[in-house]
Amino acid sequence: MAERGALWLLSLLWLTFLSTETSAAKHVDKGSAAHPFSPFWLTVEPQDTLAIRGNSALLNCSAHSDAATPARIEWKKDGTFMSLVSDERRNILPDGSLLFTHVVHSKHNKPDEGTYQCVATIDNLGSISSRTARLSVAGMPRFVSQPSAASVRLGDSQVMACEVNSDLVPFTRWEKDRQPLELSSRLVQLPSGALVISNASEADAGSYRCLVENVGSSKSSDEAQLQTLPETGEDRKLELLVQPSPVAKVTGSSVLLPCVVAGFPAPHIHWMFGDKLLDESEGRVEMLGGGSLQIYNLTEEDTGIYTCVAENSNSSIEAQAQLTIQVPPQFVKRPANIYAHESMDIVFECEVSGSPAPTVKWVKNGDAVIPSDYFKIIKEHNLQVLGLVKSDEGFYQCLAENDAGNIQSSAQLIILDHGSGGVAGPAGPTPSAPRDVVASLVSTRFIKLTWRQPAEPHGDELTYSVFYSQEGNSRERVVNTSRPGEMQVTIQNLMPDSKYRFRVVAHNSNGPGESSAALRVATQAEVQVPGPAPNLQAVSNTPTSMSLSWDKPLTGNGEILTYKLYYTDKSVGTEQDVDIDGQSYTLTGLKKNTEYSFRVVANNKHGPGVSTEDVTVRTLSDVPSAPPQNLTLEVQNSRSIMLRWQPPPLSGQNGEITGYKIRYRKGSRRSETADTIGGTQLYKLIDGLERGTEYSFRVSAMTVNGTGPATEWITVETFESDLDESRVPDQPSSLHVRPLVNSIVVSWTPPENQDIVVRGYSIGYGIGSPHAQTIKVDYKQRYYTIENLDPSSHYVITLKAFNNVGEGIPVYESAITRPQSDPMDPDVDLYELFHAPYTPVPDPTPMMPPVGVQASVLSHDTIKVTWADSSLPKSQKITDNRYYTVRWKTNIPANTKVKMANTTSLNHMVTALKPNTLYEFSVMVTKGRRTSTWSMTAQGTTFETIPSSSPKDVTVVSKENKPRTIIVNWQPPSEANGKITGYIIYYSTDVNAEVHDWVIEPVVGNRLTHQIQELTLDTTYYFKIQARNSKGMGPMSEAVHFRTPKTESSDKMANDQASNPPPKPGPPGNHNPVDTGTSVGKSGVGGSESHILVIVIIISVGAFTIIVVVVGAFLCTRRTTSHQKKKRAASKSSNGSHKYKGNSKDLKPPDLWIHHERLELKPMDKSPEPNPVMTETPIPRTSQDITPADSGLESNPHLQQRRNSYRESVRNTPSSEPLPPATASSQASCPSEILADPEGSYHGSTTAEEEPSYSSNLPPHRSAHPHAHPLKSFAVPVIPASSHPSYESPALPSTPLLAQTGPPTHPHVVKTASIGTLGRTRTPMAVTVPNAPDVPETSKMLEDVDNSYEPDELTEEMAHLEGLMKDLNAITTAP
Question: Does the keyword Kinase apply (predicted)?
Fold first, then answer.
């Protein structure tokens, strides 16, 4: 049991050390008994206090602790510690409270007034601070206004003024005739101190004065006489004696909103909260003093605008005020105690609520925490401490404050030693130091480190910790690998142009091992552009203007030349900008009551800097600038008319619509009647009208700012007599049905006798009986689709008209639904089906269809359709009960679904349309039983908007034979909402990285595939794609991951796979394809044996290859014929104008093409004919080092001469890929080149995977050396000149990423690859390496080569070959 407990505790420590998350840090070694958390908190904290001059005052404070030494209490005043050693007037009591024996306060000396805070400290543990408390001292009584003589009519109201200092109002009282005045619901003292006398009586006459008492000294105001007068009965205009003013209160308190109105007849006063009428029956609301509003126990929901409305029979008057309810700060989540180790990162969480939003600051051991590179405020209020050191221990407090109060909460941080908790030392060996730590990627703000496994891992699954610190700073941070075996990590959030120190530690089951040697790397410098402009503020001055101001950037990096202000109308989304010279600007011409977002970018001589965060502000509201839309009048009967309308267009509302005002008049009279509708109601029934009378109506919208313009007058006439509703309606005149597979479309016409009121229609249906289901529809409806029916079923359908008396006589019809296999499309034009062939009784005088139909596109989803009716008078005023039906559909052949809507006006707003879609619209008119045909169609294409869906079907595949190259394929987004103009591919090795840290690949046009080159082997990449149209970028697709192969394939591997059967897995020394399932980096006892086996195989293969080459050369020389001899002789006798370069006499000694992993290569020129569709991206992704040849090669002058000759021959050879080693092909009759691979074996270069290359002045398919012996030419073939077509033409667009050459690898040399930021990348120097041909050539390289040689020439060539073999042996046996 003891061993199991020790192992459990060791595992707990191990898991804790590996964790960098706060949630894990909180639980570091909780079981350790050596470092328990110390109970330490404040039991009593000081509260706001009002003191009286000359009296004593007490601020309470006491602390609780289990420590042996009691806490020491000190006090701060206005943030500074108080020195109370020799202070006789102020001293600290034993419990920690601060006592003022005698408060001092005068006009010019206020030593005691201020903000106080107590701090409790325990030595060697830490300190905690209390909330802050305000000590105020009541000033000398001072009257701002005093009561004056006044008179009041009996039953009316009057106010006696008495305004004193705001802090003395609670000490104010009133006297009448030198006797204390008892307040009541009729006699009310206002918050200002004034006295309200309502519903005055003769007993109210007398002498009044107000007094201030109990504040050290008393003071009374002047006396004023109030005289009562009899009521004369004459009308007096309503007058506001006192009106409410804006006020802020704390939750739970009470508020009195004054409203005193005088006038005759006595006004009736009521209050509105928003658009809601307040009622005293609610319990918390009470009316005092005839009109003032008292609200008790305030809650946050009471915030809003309160309106006092006073009205009598003559007029009305109103006043309003804003009530703001403040909520003191409250903790939603308090900071928690944390255990942690040094170098870890921790987060103290602190979440608060309150109104207004509280401000939060952090305190450590009583001192304010100043944000820095290692102390950061994240996620609004949380405190993050990076790279812990021992001195970070102590108590951390979160202090939240707003206008309603302040609170604090503390937590303790304990830094543990790695061996704490009584755990014994390591149970076994730990890993040695990780090897070859290098920075594979270096950017301005992140560095990617890679390393190799330790030489002595002492375990299989190792994890790693990377410790790093900024040079000159002792605070070290740690980042851990995400999974066992991973040997790379990316360090984020570094500073540009700064030096950092890195070291790596491996961990096995026994604990952390040795640390690697320190690696020093400097991040890249950023372009010196300005930082963000701080303190961006926007204030709306008028409904159409906005004032903006900002401060100068803290990091200007030189003189600021101009500022660019970007602003966006949130309702549209289009960003605009304006150049500004100063640090403030007033933007005019804005839309009213519209949200705008603003941001500012500073410019210096280097260009635009970092943008500020967006600030969103709404312009002020105003009266509506447009009338309501689509006002329709519907005569209900002889005495009532129903009005319906739509709100003004959004651009004309200019604020929240609070109601509508309806004005109407009878006939041609000028006198109008007004009616007001509150809220958002869009209809009104006007009743009590006269029979057979013409009425005109118009409607206007209202906001809090006033009433907007009214609609045009619309006239309608009430019926002379009402329709008959003393009996049920007649039978509908016709009923038609059209069966589909799962539905039946029913259409009908109304009863022939239209003098009887029809309120609606009742449809019954069922299989065999019409009484199974019943549906009721409106009286205006003429068709209905019964859905969710069974196929191939017999349904009986009945239709009845009904009114308030009952249902009329039914009409019956039956139908059989179609079978399931019926290809009939259910989405058919219902009106085309029913209104043309199924009209039962054609009207002899059909109505004319609407004319002049126009479709006006308003946005990406809204089109306004307008038309004219030739059957209306010239004024186009609708005075009867006709209505219009608008239908629309898209022009997409696969979508023939038609939608319809009815309206009683000459226009209709069609919404919820698809963006960038062509719609066709037509209109018809219906009046009673008369219906027109459809009008001519009008077309409109909705505007584009940003794509609302991401590209779909994203796939990533590896390019054949090129493991560092991948191809990304995708399909366009389902909802493109416009023409796709391009895509952006994001990819990263970290799926959780910020968007700005992903590498970006732009794709122009509507291509659906893209090629990315030079990726890192054995690495998982994540890809996202974003579509773009003319309106902007759509959402990103979900991340798709792809892992590149572990080993780079070569031409040799490709040839082996193409010409030989799949080999069995062999030892590491052979050239079989790498088994991806084989673990890498394992070490064991058999390691040395495998190395010996590799050496044996290399020597064997080398010897065998030399024999094959010699035999092949001998066989090739015997293939001469007499014809070839003649041709050879003729060739030798030709002069210098021969079309081939040189002759046999000009042949130089053979050039040796050495393909070695350490061969030093010169930079090559770029390809003379780049691919025109290639996508350039100047962001390198890998770093490759090609080191010089060894000293054995340099010491041999003959080989040195050949290497120089090789360089000369390949100097103009363009290539962007490393040279792959070639292998001997069984199909080649004679090798044309001999290569030396790193293992020392020789291979011919005429393989099935190679491509022919030619000298710049030779035509295609011709050898560069026509007279040379096949074994004599070791020069590198050359790509054709630009006049000839290029044979390297990939089908897909690619992103060439050029490898870099560098010096030999050294333990203290950092290999880096630069990654710049988007838009400011530095293009790396193009360094190319020659490559062997890629396409099949076999015998094509030799088809025009003269193979005929004379015996003396053959002897000479064999001598050359013998010297060559000696050189090769010297290379392979070199140490």
Answer: no
